[in-house]
Design goal:
Layout lengths: L3 E7 H18 L13 H14 E3 L5 E3 L1 E5 L3 H8 L11 E3 L8 H5 L2 H18 L4 E9 L4 H16 L4 E8 L10 H15 L2 E6 H11 L7 H15 L1 H4 L8 H8 L7 E7 L14 H8 L15 E9 L4 H12 L13 E4 L11 E8 L2 H17 L4 H5 L5 H22 L7 H4 L3
Parallel strand pairs: 1-4, 1-6, 4-5, 6-7, 7-8, 8-9, 10-11
Antiparallel strand pairs: 2-3, 9-12, 10-12
Helix pairs in contact: 1-6, 1-9, 5-6, 6-7, 7-14, 7-16, 8-9, 12-13, 14-16
């Protein structure tokens, strides 16, 4: 069948998100924690096995391993994954780690400590590429606030674009928030990372810790949520956003269609997510929702995994339903929720697509996930860029980065590139298209 996707998870956040992702999709594809295929019935088995090969590689009659490379600059998080019930599912030589860490310094991850590890990472990636029949592309899980996920993560992304220019690179990127972490240099790391994502990612699912925190507190009623709780929230949306890649669907069946539908302009490829119903680990939703009810829920501000303006305009959107909504239900919810021109940027009133993979997400009968390229992302970007400017104006902590060989010009270029991205989204929202060709790029 081919059409494989290789996942690369980098840093503590990226590996924790990845661990949740693999645990969830292994269960959905009919695999136990060791990667062995659990037989049910012939029809279901054939469907699961066929699509399992997108994210898993078959290594025996009934055993699969994730097409995953797990990377960190220190061994701690990877040791936890190895010792977990599903640790034996992964290929041992796809764990790539150092012993120094990045100390929340993007430059260490990108230029010094990360540069010493990059050849081992690319060797592991190359082995996975060689095992593919028809590689679609890569998925990167990482955060933008720390040193490893941001610095080494974007270094890996840049190398992938050089080595495999015909393959697509999609990222799931978690932006920092002062409400969750008090690491002073997070704005530097985030803007330097965004600069790389603008240039080297084909599609970035961008969420922030503030949005995840709001869901954990307000929807899941967790008084003091920890990072594992936030990563659990994100894992719901990630499995929803990738469902059409893993199961038969009438739309968005591969990475290219996902990118083409969600990024009409190459540089404006930043998409955020919403998911419903949301429930905490170890619990189940108490209320069974219909297709129309879950649609109403997923559009609510409290369902979004990022903090942005509620009055934002949509450039492009994809709604993925899991379960068994009827064609009539799908047509109705699409009409009710996507036929409103006021929701969309003027030139993209038809910029939405609906997919409905037939396989539900246990234990929920029906779920909905929205991936939306929206001008509301400017709120998050402006907050991060302003925090960056306040630090840079005082030259605060710059010596940490210069000590790793960085030049101030790179800070200035990154700040300007993010500012141009914000301006482009704002112009689209206002219906201004002239003079944007250089910023928007060509499809």
């Amino acid at each position: 069948m081919g059409q494989e996707i290789i996942c690369i998870q980098v840093g503590q956040c990226g590996n924790q998100i990845g661990a949740n992702f693999w645990q969830a999709i292994a269960e959905e594809q009919g695999l136990d924690t060791s990667g062995k295929f659990v037989r049910t019935n012939k029809t279901v088995d054939a469907r699961r096995r066929a699509k399992a090969e997108v994210f898993f590689r078959q290594v025996g009659a009934d055993r699969f391993v994730p097409r995953a490379v797990l990377v960190d600059l220190e061994p701690g998080t990877l040791d936890v994954i190895k010792a977990s019930p599903m640790g034996t599912m992964f290929k041992p030589d796809n764990f790539v780690f150092g012993n120094s860490g990045a100390g929340n310094n993007w430059a260490k991850g990108h230029y010094t400590e990360g540069a010493e590890l990059i050849d081992q990472v690319l060797d592991a990636v190359r082995r996975e590429v060689d095992s593919c029949r028809s590689l679609q592309g890569f998925m990167l899980f990482h955060s933008l606030g720390g040193g490893t996920g941001s610095g080494l993560g974007t270094l890996i992304l840049r190398k992938l674009k050089d080595l495999y220019p015909k393959q697509l690179c999609v990222t799931f990127s978690v932006a920092p928030s002062a409400k969750v972490s008090d690491v002073a240099v997070e704005p530097y790391n985030a803007v330097l990372s965004l600069h790389q994502l603008i240039e080297n990612s084909d599609l970035t699912f961008l969420v922030d810790n503030e949005g995840l925190l709001n869901i954990a507190r307000n929807t899941l009623k967790q008084k003091t949520p920890k990072y594992p709780d936030l990563n659990w929230v994100l894992s719901h949306a990630v499995t929803g956003a990738t469902a059409s890649l893993r199961f038969a669907s009438r739309a968005l069946g591969d990475l290219r269609s996902l990118v083409m539908n969600l990024a009409p302009y190459p540089r404006l490829h930043f998409v955020t997510l919403a998911h419903a119903p949301m429930y905490a680990a170890g619990s189940q939703p108490r209320v069974k929702l219909s297709a129309s009810q879950v649609t109403a829920e997923v559009w609510k501000p409290r369902s979004w995994l990022a903090s942005f303006r509620a009055d934002a305009k949509i450039v492009a959107a994809a709604l993925t339903y899991r379960g068994n909504p009827t064609a009539r239900e799908l047509d109705q919810v699409a009409t009710d929720n996507l036929a409103n021109p006021s929701r969309f940027v003027e030139a993209f009133t038809n910029g939405a697509v609906v997919s409905a993979p037939s396989t539900p997400k246990p234990p929920v009968k029906i779920t909905a996930t929205i991936a939306a390229n929206t001008t509301g992302v400017t709120g998050m970007l402006q907050r991060i860029n302003s925090e960056f400017a306040n630090l840079y104006k005082r030259k605060a902590f710059l010596h940490w980065y210069k000590g790793e060989g960085m030049d101030e010009q790179e800070f200035q270029e990154a700040h300007r590139n993010v500012r141009d991205l914000i301006s482009a989204y704002e112009s689209l929202e206002q219906g201004i298209y002239t003079g944007l060709s250089g910023v928007l790029g060509e499809n």
